[in-house]
Give the backbone structure.
Amino acid sequence: QEQLVESGGGLVQSGESLRLSCAASGFTFGDYVMNWYRQAPGKGRELVASISTTGEHTAYAGSVRGRFTISRDNAKNTLYLQMRSLSPEDTAVYYCNGDNYWGQGTQVTVSS
């Protein structure tokens, strides 16, 4: 059974950092482009960052470029999102995605 499980969310203060992880199982993780999305209260789901199958290529939403870093470890079937200089505008549920697979989300809350 295909599964994505996010972890690493929490409550932090503005300016602090968090690292999200997404553990994949049940499919060939290294065959898929992987993405992080987020959804803030009352808003639609937003694509935050994407990474190619080998990790060589990455792309970011303008709102996080320079602060967030997406990476992957295909040997560990794990996707990461390093988030720095967090602000209250980054408060959202963060989701891991690859193809049609979605995780359950992890809450990130940034207080001012």
